[in-house]
Specification:
The structure is a single chain. The chain is of the alpha+beta class. The protein folds into 4 domains: about 20-95, Nucleic acid-binding proteins (OB fold (Dihydrolipoamide Acetyltransferase, E2P), Beta Barrel); about 100-180, OB fold (Dihydrolipoamide Acetyltransferase, E2P) (Beta Barrel); about 195-265, Nucleic acid-binding proteins (OB fold (Dihydrolipoamide Acetyltransferase, E2P), Beta Barrel); about 275-350, Beta Barrel (OB fold (Dihydrolipoamide Acetyltransferase, E2P)), CATH 2.40.50.140. Helix content is about 15%, strand content about 40%. It has helices spanning about 1-15, 95-110, 175-190, 270-275, 320-325; strands at about 25-35, 35-40, 50, 70-80, 90, 115-125, 125-130, 135-140, 155-165, 170-175, 200-210, 210-215, 220-225, 245-255, 260-265, 285-295, 295-300, 305-310, 330-340, 345-350. The protein is rod-shaped and about 120 Å long.
Length: about 350
Amino acid sequence: MTQTMDEFEKLLNEQFSYTFNVADIIQGVVVKRDKNGFLVDIGAKSEAYLPDKEITANGDKPSDDVLKIGDLKDFYVLKGEDEDDEGIITLSLKRISCAKAWQDLATAKLSQEPIMAKVVQVVKGGVIVEINELRGFIPASQLRIGTPLDSLIGTEIETRVLEADAKRNKLILSQRQAIAEQREQLVDDVIASLSVDQVVKGEIIRIAEFGAFIDINGVDGLLPISEISWARIKHPSDVLTLGETIEVKILKIDYDLKRISLSLKRMGDNPWEEIEGKFEEGQIVKGTVNKVAAFGVFVNIFPGVEALLPTSEMKDENQNPFNVFKVGDEISVMIKKFTPQEHRIALSMKEV
């Protein structure tokens, strides 16, 4: 009998060997109403104590709608056994949502999952946001560039958790990283849906000397100046207008670098293919000067087709082309060499 009692006591001690620490989240059953709170059975040697002020956020005495005898709930350990002279564990109900919010934020940081935050205040160096009753800070450097801070107040933005320290009550977030990840996923999805030679619509969002950038479903594609027109153009803005929506053909997709190359001129017929059979060597044709260079003159002899009249084939090869021709001049020339497959036509004025 003595051995049986010893075993029972050993099992009983093992059952209550768990130490309840501050910030633990535990389950308990409300068993009794006390003068200034409730007693809660949490599986310890004695009931834990839940003060009235730790039940609701405003500290009012709870009604039966808030807490009832027999309720099974999660509680936040406010004070552990070792911190109280009588070994009583003190609980909090109102802090459970706060503790869970910190847990969710810590999980979001590890998983790198985006999280929504409401902007509530603009402060020096950034903005204050609110997430599940917790407040965090987004430095200005981690906000989307060009976003007016005052216009963000009251709005919810997607963010990524940079730091979540419950003990120091420190929460730092980034909007830029969340947008970057979102955009990267968007780029992957859009590129995966495209194919070479596909015709797509896009908005011209930027024009530069070397070409234009076209927004294709949220992804920027490059339209080089050489692919804008079959005819020679000085600048992309001669043909394109910022904000204009155009149809372009996909020339190349670089899946590793996530780049899209586009063409506008290939939306129409290739004029170099059209001129085959229409011109021949020795034929006299009329053309318009498109460009004057030190080595010769570029002449448009067919829409989109440019031929070269070198200085050696001018009437007087010693003359400076700039002194003889100007853009827009109409001249008669002879086709000396005709190789449309190579996109080359050589002209001569000596034999005209």
